[in-house]
Amino acid sequence: MMTKTVAVIGGGPAGMEASKELAFNGFQVVLLESGARLGGHMNQWDRLFPNKRPAGEILESLYRNFPGSITVMTETNITSIGRNADRFILRTAGRDVIEADALLVCTGFRVFDAILKEEYGYGIYDNVITSVDLEQWFKEKRPVLTSHGRVPATVGFIHCVGSRDEKSGNLHCSKVCCVTAVKQAVELKEKLPEARIFCFYMDLRMFGLGYEELYKESQEKYRIQFIRGRLSEAFENMDGSLMAKVEDTLTAKPLRINLDLLVLMVGFLPSDGTAAIGSLLGLTFNPNGFLQPRDGHLQPHDTEQQGVFLAGSCKGPKNLEETLADARSAVLRIRQYLTN
Amino acid sequence: MKIEGKKRLWQQYQKEIAGDRYFYVRSCVRQNFFPGAEAVFLKIMQDELGKDVYENPAHTSCTGIGYHCDIVPFDTAMTVVARQFSLMAEAGYENFVTSCITSFGLYSEVLETWNHFPEKQEQAARFLHEATGRPFARPSNVSHASDIIYKYRHEIAARAQYRLVNSLTGEPLKGVEHIGCHYAKMFPSKGVGGAEYPYVLVGMIEEWGGEVVDYPERRHCCGFGFRHYAVRANRGYSLSCSRKKFESMQPYKPDFILTNCPGCPMFLDRWQYVISEMEGKTYGPGNEGIPVLTYEELAGLVLGYDPWDIGLQVHQVSVEPLLKKMGIAYDPDGKYLGPGGKYLGRPENPANIYFV
Amino acid sequence: MPRWGYKIHEDRQVIWEEGDFSLVERIRLAEPSLCLCISCGTCASGCTAAQFTDFSLRRVIIQLQRGRIEEVRQEIDRCMLCGKCILTCPRGVNTRHLVLCIRKELSGDVLY
Ligand code: SF4
Ligand code: SF4
Ligand code: SF4
Question: To test ligand 2's pocket by mutation, which of C43, C60, C78 has the most ligand atoms within 8 angstroms of CB?
Fold first, then answer.
């Protein structure tokens, strides 16, 4: 029997993990990535929740024993996907033609563009940053300073920016930002022991093992203060600090607080690749724009299109554990499909 | 603050503003509050820019104030609005221009309602026909008068006699702007620059040489609030809202407040006096207040119109400090003289706030 | 002065910076579990005192953390020290000791 080929679309953690497993299972793999390198968002991340493990370790493990037989094509954009009998024919912007017996879509997510929450002033006020920016600062070992070069005395983390928000057009919970905020708040407090750090939240969703523990530790050991209230607007003060308006819902009073640095916990949205590949293949999108498997419980990798499978956060917000497990499970499903 | 960030947003909120042939509807309260403002608009549009602006004496209140006071039901308001549109169409116009922000908000709300609920439009057309026999029509463009002044701000600048520059120091004058809640908070896409960083007044101030200062409570309501103002016992809400704004803007030392709406200049102007009486506090240098102008009045000053011809003597906060800064030659003795030199009477001197 | 018939309203907005955080700082040293409160209200729902007075230990803890000492002072004496709350708190806040510490501090004894 001829070796079957699987084209894996998207080279983030899900795509990398799945490619490796497929290759170990004896399939020919073509891994297609639109960006310049593999690893996806892991490349921008410094440390991971809940145990502050360096993201580099994960990248390293993804690259470790990466089979040389996998054809990796970076900076590759797929322009059309056709079928010839049971085979898929993928054409790229660079005029390559790839044939495959099955497709695994691992196109992942992008983060919400914080500029769209106009009233929070990202891109306008000097000291408003996103969780991604802060992680970048950590990764680059940049000292945490305000734009005026001062050590911030007060820092606010704003949960649910672009998630759970009709006004942003996103109804879903991005799932990982609550625990990310707690992780980043703790890391910040380690760097700035004098700072008062606040998290402004609607609900705290500590869904994973070790998350609630981290939250508790952040209160007890790091004295992060959690205020239940959602930012209605921020404004820049004369000295460049921010005036934030929330309701302190637990005392039922409007609250005004000055913050030297405001960190927006940007949410999880389907990536442009997820939208593009989903449309090229005529897949079903769920109301939040993620790809919808045929049956979320029982057929989590199958789609309406025979031979097209899904894995990772193209289906919705996931943490890394779930993403990697989902990728491995997708490989099992593809093996079943191609060997029957 | 990063101005490029604001500019990027401003670009996303560019609305269509008709260029000529306007059907102009006045506010029902402005002529009492600031009697020269609408006359200045007409003078600029007709005499300076040669535009066709038509007014119809059969036009009535839009009922916006009654609607926002919960006195006029929305169905009634929609029928009244349908009548104004019908007057417009009858006169052969398509571009509807409102003087009042609350009118602008109401017209926008009615049109949006009709877009979303066509049966409501049918109902309004039917009520209109039953009540007046008039045919139903819709405008092709609805703009607020400030949108039009904004659109022609360059033309006004080209004719400027005075600029928003301190004539002694050469420094730009500092203005804070207040667009009025109903201009864009309900429908951000209907306001130039959107709701969070509106550009309509900013564009005028910048074009005419001034500098805009952004202050933390800029977005806060002036406190008009309709029911809050209409019932005397509730006026404290209105007063307290304005006070919150003054407290927030004072450290930035603005030379003037520029406003968009009939209510906002009224309250931002008059409450400065009330606060001076109640608390002895004023917000300008010494015991001065901060002069409050409507966009038409400011355009009039820039064009060199006599401050007393455009009604600045009825402002509670004396505008003279601003006139001096702009280097405007004005006649102090003419302040309380009406047309033909008729003495209008002089208000009593308030105790705690500078007044001339 | 004219009779206005209305007045300037006191602003309900709480300005964080105006809070007095000295009390919470001292109490925290005496009873660090204070920081663990998640405002779930279990303490207040079973509280003996809360059934018949406007007392909520949950609210007292929040007011303490917000630096609003006057509010704490007005409420804290209503606690009957029965200990029901310590039995139920899911976060292990040592509530009864907390109440005792607050009372001591407010009566002028210095704990730390
Ligand atoms: S995980 Fe938390 S911050 Fe993120 S969207 Fe859900 S509730 Fe909001
Ligand atoms: S110890 Fe005090 S606060 Fe706790 S349950 Fe008893 S009365 Fe309520
Ligand atoms: S039961 Fe414990 S955690 Fe819940 S509100 Fe009371 S003290 Fe806080």
Answer: C43
Question: Which CATH number applies to A5-108+271-339?
Answer: 3.50.50.60
Instruction: Name the region of A199 (left: φ>0; alpha: ψ -120 to 50; beta: rest).
Output: beta
Cα-to-centroid distance, A169 and ligand 1 (Å) = 15
Judged by CB atoms closer than 8 Å, whether chains meet at C17 and A258 is answered as yes
What is the CA(A161)–ligand 1 centre distance, in A?
A: 8
Q: Which secondary-structure segment (H or E) carries A227?
A: strand A225-228
Core vs surface per residue A42-80: b (16+ CB within 10 A) or e: beebbbbbbeeeebbebbeebeeeeeeebebbeebebee
Domain that holds residue C56: 20-106
Residue C68 lies in a domain: yes
Q: How confident is the model at residue C111 (pLDDT cuts 50, 70, 90)?
A: low
Express each pLDDT in C29-86 by its tens digit. Answer: 999 999 999 999 999 999 999 999 999 999 999 999 999 999 999 999 999 999 999 9
CB-nearest partner of A123 from B2, B194, B195: B2
What is the Å distance from ligand 3's center to A313 Cα?
A: 36
Angle at A96 between CA A92 and CA A97, to 5 degrees: 90
The finding on whether C23 has its CB within 6 A of some atom of ligand 3 is no
Residues 6 or more apart in contact with residue A156 via CB below 8 angstroms: A197, A198, A199, A200, A231, A242, A244, A257, A259, A261, A262, A263
For A223, name the nearest residue in chain C, comparing CA atoms only.
Answer: C35
CB of residue C80 inside a 6 A radius of ligand 2:
yes
Measure in Å the smallest separation between the Cα of A223 and chain C Cα atoms.
7
Q: Find tokens 């009224």 and name the residue.
A: B266
Find the C90 Cα to ligand 3 centroid distance in Å.
Answer: 7
Q: How many residues does chain B have?
A: 356
* Numbered ranges of CATH 3.50.50.60 in chain A: 5-108+271-339, 114-268
Rounded average pLDDT over B314-320: 96
Domain A114-268 grouped into CATH 3.40.50.150:
no
Domains in chain B: ranges and CATH: 17-145 (1.20.1050.140), 153-341 (3.40.50.11810)
Strands laid side by side in the A233-236 sheet = A233-236, A242-248, A253-259, C14-15
Task: Tell me the DSSP string of A157-184.
Answer: EEEEETSSBGGGTB-S--SSHHHHHHHH
Neighboring chain C residues of B237 at a CB cutoff of 8 Å: 9
Binding site membership of C47 for ligand 2 (Cβ less than 6 Å): yes
What tens digit of pLDDT does each residue of A281-338 get? 999 999 999 999 999 999 999 999 999 999 999 999 999 999 999 999 999 999 999 9
CATH number of the domain where residue C57 is located = 1.10.1060.10
Q: Is residue C9 part of a domain?
A: no
Range in A272-286, B103-117, B261-275 the model is least confident about: B261-275
Kindly report, residue by residue over C6-29, the tens digit of the pLDDT: 999 999 999 999 999 999 999 999
pLDDT, tens only, A83-122: 998 899 999 999 999 999 999 999 999 999 999 999 999 9
What is the reported pTM?
0.94
Asked whether residue C88 is assigned to any structural domain, the reply reads yes
* Chain-centre distance for alpha carbon B295: 6
ipTM: 0.92
Instruction: State the nearest Cα–Cα gap between A119 and chain B, in angstroms.
Output: 6
Output the ligand 1 site: residues, CB below 6 A. A 159-160, 163-164, 173-175, 177-178, 203, 205, 265, 267
Cβ contact A160:A268 at 8 Å = no
* C58 touches ligand 2 (CB under 6 Å): no
Q: Is residue C46 part of a domain?
A: yes
pLDDT at A1 over 80: no
- Work out how many domains chain C is built from and give that number: 1
A26 pLDDT higher than 80? yes
